[in-house]
Amino acid sequence: MRALKKMLVIVDTRQDKHLALARARLLAKATGATIHALAPNPHANEASLKVLETLIKPLQDEGLEVIPHEQWHNNAVETIIHVRQAEGCDLVVKQAKRADSVAKVISTPEDWSLLRKCRVPVLMVKHAEPWADGKILAAIDANPNDSEHQMLNEVILEYAAAIAGVADAECHIASAHPAPMLSSTDPDKQTQEGMRFSYQAGCKFFADRYEIPAEDIHVEEGPAETLIPAIAKRIDADLVVMGTVARTGIKGALMGNTAELLLGAIECDVLTLKPRDIMEPLEQTLYRF
Description:
Layout: E1 6-10, H1 19-31, E2 34-38, H2 46-61, E3 66-69, H3 76-87, E4 91-95, H4 102-106, H5 109-117, E5 122-125, E6 135-139, H6 147-167, E7 170-177, H7 192-209, E8 217-221, H8 224-234, E9 239-243, H9 249-252, H10 258-265, E10 269-273, H11 276-286
Helix pairs in contact: 3-5, 8-10
């Protein structure tokens, strides 16, 4: 996990609540990172910039380095990507659009597009409470036969454990597993007990590495898009850390990405990550001075 030096915070100056800015303040106080506050605005002017500057002034008065940006490049997501790349930010922080039904989830393509296209971690903020002394939930796919997910799991646990350490919070692990498959040639997949044991072992591997107690491992049968939000709510998680992959084109328009479904269902903050080979190359280019 790279040190957090710069974060890009998306600010909608038309809103009354600024959860992303509040979360960025706490992160900056904990890490010393610079905040780049971006208000995507196709009609930027002196007056609108003044509104943004007024919003960030309390943070600046606390001694935090906060730099205002008001830009527009075709649409909001392209604007975010452009400024993030130009400023070399390590993290994007954005207030999530509330989604209390499937209809509302479908109507938030901006958040989905950002998750698919952004090459650095994206933190979707849903509440203002501190993470300190709270619970961080690492949501993984513990399928032992899926090497791609194993690589992503490495990143998820690395971030979740690091955040839990800084916040003095508990780190939990959760994984959904499918129903038994009687036709499978793998004995572990033919029974519910065998399937659960297999996924439990995958979680235990990371729990042992990061010294996570066995009682903080949650493995249950069912679809991840319903189980993970339920587990997060049951343990009262403050942050869920999960993975996604880069998806563009026609496939990217489909409602098949578990992370996109989870984003609408989870009630706490959500940090989405990609495998290192997707996240890092662009960063290496940006930081080559």
